[in-house]
Design brief:
The complex is a heterodimer.
Chain A: E1 21-22, E2 33-35, E3 38-42, E4 49-53, E5 58-64, H1 76-81, E6 87-94, E7 97-105, E8 110-118, E9 130-140, E10 151-154, E11 161-165, E12 171-177, E13 192-196, E14 199-206, E15 209-216, E16 228-234, E17 255-258, E18 264-274, E19 280-289, E20 295-306, E21 309-312, E22 319-325, E23 331-334, H2 378-381, E24 390-395, E25 405-409, E26 415-416, E27 419-420, E28 422-426, E29 432-435, E30 441-444, E31 455-459, E32 465-469, E33 480-485, E34 488-492, E35 503-506
Parallel strand pairs in A: 1-5
Antiparallel strand pairs in A: 2-3, 3-4, 4-5, 6-7, 7-8, 8-9, 10-11, 11-12, 12-13, 14-15, 15-16, 16-17, 18-19, 19-20, 20-21, 22-25, 22-35, 23-24, 24-30, 25-28, 26-27, 29-30, 31-32, 33-34
Chain B: H1 2-14, H2 22-25, H3 34-58, E1 68-69, E2 86-90, E3 93-94, H4 101-110, E4 126-129, E5 132-141, E6 146-147, H5 148-154, E7 162-172, E8 176-186, E9 188-193, E10 196-201, E11 212-213, E12 217-219, E13 222-232, E14 238-244, E15 255-257
Helix pairs in contact in B: 1-3
The chains are: A mainly beta, B alpha+beta.
Chain lengths: 508, 260
């Protein structure tokens, strides 16, 4: 089992659908890293191809890393310890430097992890260049290790740097890294064995737990790849890492984090993208995107947490939703007088005001009153809605038309990590939720495509959503949909510790 | 008045735990007696209407409302939570009891106090709406909320199917922008700050802190007139109000006054 390079080099992407836009074709992606407002990812391929995005949604190719490395190929010592392939890199910032670790296999399991050191990730910067940092770790082809697939981790507890690596032959291993040089801090020490039966490992941390994520299964066979991401956790960065039923990953344990699903087969090469404010995403590639002819593509999805374990969230999908405040339990609605679904009916089902006798009636109702009541559509009840702008408010959800919102992706307007922007309209109408210049909300009669009508919907760690306008005139600050009271929505700064800006988007 | 009495008598009939208690209101009537209930309620109402009407005219008030007092100082500082505890309240005006958006908006127009957009009323001022002479009462509440049920009950006034006009003056030490009026009311209510409508909440609802919240507004330096109409269907009725800042915290430095 090995990671295969070059499989994507000739891919032509057409009609991007869901898993990122532009040219997301990639295999063995690094962790997605943000630098000067741009998103970068590096992948397997000759010279380590660069993918860059201005917003995390639309991606483009930007040459290779080794175009900016003297000699344009791994250093001689790296090649000597491993080989001259360039696969599966990872990247991290340490102080004022960036370290790129990459796989340089020869005839596996003889392989090495090489280091590149740079000061900027921006290929257009005059300071942009990479220096060969030599091999960091290697496997001699006999020992229980295949030194490829580096994953670099900074321990937030003490700032220490750690590198995991390995692929099936032998162990997933761990060494500590010197944050100043990117090389091993204690080269004389034996690497620590963490797991077996996997590759593409990396460690993340949350709330006193270290999580080792690695990819298991077969790669590089398109839709026939069984890649899936597994995990275990430990109280110490050095392990032991156990899965959800207590099996040590050194003995084959590994709780499933993400397997194939929908139109995507073979997720692998997990990377954490922490956007701050409690918003976490993860990057990975799918071995096969069935909507793109089965090529391998990069994707970015929400990272959720449940019962002490990371959970793979889904990017928001278009549909009709109720938008319920996590703070109040009331639902966002057009501020118009609601009409009961099916019209006024008493408890007994009879129609008309007061029909059926209210609470007390329930026994004798005509048979016709028990027919299913169809869903309420806006066209049925909107005749008396004002034609112009209408305020937005929150009320108990009553399955009424003014409470049902169509959330629809908008093409060619950019996006954010993992998704395009959405418009949010009253279902069955063009009445569009709009952010006002004074940071309040209104529903306008039509969608114009302005940034104040484009919405970013990030899923938060608990599964709730943060909803933000793309932009508001006159301010560059980010603002989020917020429940200022039980019945009043507004826009406010996002506070990850509060339920005010958390929303549950439920299908009606 | 007859509609109100009918409602009360109906309550007495079907609610063994007392009249006009919201908790009892939620209990269903046994359907076997539903037809008897309405018939008996109408009969009893007819029998007592004339007596009740006469008694209401002649009877003294029931004594002070337990949660309300007469203001004893020129101005009152809101408590730590920022709630405005000094108000002028007009005796209740009978309504049709409807609490929908359109019904409430219609009521606040048709039952408007003639001078409400002009001078601030004083304690004891009287206005006539329809045929009913009504008096303004200055009160301090000892709680965060103003219990309109206590207010009306103490005056032997109706508490169901009514509209209460309330007003107060909030004095700001300086211009305060980006603040919000945050209210709760039982039941529907409409609110104005310095003559501009800023909140409307509708339908039958309990008084919940910060239920209705205005958009960001500016309090001018000095006096700012807060006015509201609270409409009740039946049962308990009260309201609370405060100003909050961008973070939802109470605005400090305000004082509240009414004209005695």
């Amino acid at each position: 089992m090995k990671t295969v390079a070059g499989a994507l080099l000739a891919l032509v992407l057409v009609s991007p659908v869901v898993a990122l836009d532009g040219d997301p074709g990639m295999h063995d992606p690094s962790t997605v890293i943000v630098h000067d407002g741009k998103f970068y990812a590096y992948g397997t391929g000759g010279g380590l191809p660069i993918s860059v995005s201005d917003d995390g949604w639309t991606w483009r190719r930007a040459g290779t890393l080794m175009q900016a490395l003297p000699g344009g190929r791994p250093g001689q010592e790296v090649i000597a310890r491993g080989g001259n392939n360039t696969w599966a890199p990872d990247v991290i910032r340490s102080g004022d430097k960036y370290f790129v670790y990459y796989s340089a296999p020869g005839t596996q399991p003889k392989a090495a992890i090489g280091l590149l050191v740079g000061r900027t990730l921006d290929p257009n910067s005059p300071d942009y260049k990479w220096e060969d940092g030599g091999p960091v770790v290697w496997s001699d082809g006999v020992e229980d290790s295949n030194a490829i697939d580096p994953g670099v981790f900074r321990d937030p507890v003490n700032g220490s740097l750690w590198l995991t690596y390995g692929s099936y032959f032998g162990y997933i291993r761990l060494v500590e890294i010197n944050p100043k040089t990117g090389k091993r801090l204690y080269p004389e020490r034996k690497p620590i064995d963490l797991a077996i039966n996997g590759e593409a490992s990396i460690i993340i941390y949350r709330d006193g737990w270290y999580y080792l994520l690695m990819t298991r299964g077969s790669c590089c066979a398109g839709a026939n790849s069984s890649y899936n991401i597994r995990m275990g956790r430990s109280r110490k960065v050095t392990g032991p890492f156990h899965d959800n039923i207590g099996v040590d990953m050194l003995q084959g344990g590994g709780k499933l984090f993400l397997g194939s699903g929908g139109r995507y087969i073979g997720p692998g090469h997990f990377g954490l993208l922490d956007l701050g404010d409690g918003v976490q995403k993860f990057s990975m590639h799918y071995e096969a995107d069935l909507d793109r002819g089965g090529i391998s593509v990069l994707d970015i999805r929400p990272l959720l947490w449940r019962d002490g374990w990371p959970v793979a969230g889904d990017n928001f999908k278009e549909g009709t939703y109720q938008i319920e405040s996590a703070r109040t339990g009331t639902a966002l609605e057009l501020a118009v007088q609601g009409t009961p679904v099916g019209g006024l009916r008493g408890r007994g089902g009879g129609r008309g005001a007061g029909a059926g006798g209210g609470r007390g009636a329930g026994g004798a109702a005509d048979a016709g009153a028990r027919n299913p009541i169809p869903a309420q559509e806006a066209a049925q009840v909107s005749a008396n809605w004002p034609a112009g702008p209408i305020d937005v408010r929150m009320s108990p959800y009553m399955v009424q038309a003014q409470q049902k919102w169509a959330v629809t992706p908008v093409a060619n307007v950019g996006g954010y990590p993992g998704s395009s922007y959405f418009k949010i309209t009253i279902a069955g109408t063009e009445r569009a939720l709009t952010a006002t210049v004074d940071r309040e909300l209104v529903v306008l009669p039509a969608f114009t495509g302005g940034p104040e009508q484009l919405w970013r919907i990030d899923q938060l760690s608990d599964g709730a959503y943060r909803v933000m306008p793309k932009a508001i005139a006159g301010t560059k600050e980010p603002w989020a949909l917020s429940a200022i009271g039980s019945s009043m929505p507004t826009l406010a700064r996002f506070d990850p510790a509060s339920d005010r800006q958390r929303w549950w988007l439920k299908t009606p | 008045m007859s509609r109100w009495l009918l409602a009360r008598i109906s309550f007495l009939w079907r609610e063994p735990c007392g009249f006009a208690r919201r908790a009892c209101k939620a209990r269903p009537t046994n359907p076997r007696y539903a037809h008897l209930k309405d018939a008996l309620a109408v009969a009893v109402a007819a029998a007592v209407l004339s007596v009740a009407a006469a008694a209401a005219q002649d009877a003294p008030t029931r004594g002070p409302a337990p949660s309300l007092t007469r203001p004893a100082s020129p101005a009152k500082v809101p408590g730590a939570d920022g709630f405005l505890q000094r108000w002028l309240i007009l005796e209740p005006i009978m309504t049709n009891g409807q609490l929908t958006d359109s019904a409430v908006q219609a009521a606040v127009k048709t039952l408007a106090v003639p001078t409400q957009s002009g001078t601030i009323p004083r304690h004891g001022d009287k206005v006539t709406i329809g045929d009913a002479p009504l008096a303004w009462h200055a009160v301090d509440t000892i709680r965060y909320n103003v219990n309109l049920y206590h207010f009306a009950y103490a005056l032997k006034k109706p508490t169901s199917n009514v509209l209460f006009w309330v007003t107060t003056v909030v004095n700001a030490p300086r211009e305060l922008s980006g603040v919000r009026l945050a209210i709760g009311s039982n039941a529907a209510s409409v609110w104005w700050v310095n003559g501009r409508e800023v909140i409307g909440i509708y339908n039958d609802r309990q008084s919940v802190i910060d239920d209705g919240v205005s958009k960001r507004l500016t309090l001018q330096k000095g006096p700012n007139v807060i006015r509201a109409a609270i409409l009740n269907g039946g049962g308990a009725t009260d309201f609370c109000a405060r100003f909050v800042d961008e973070d939802g915290m109470p605005v400090k430095g305000l004082t509240v006054s009414v004209v005695e």
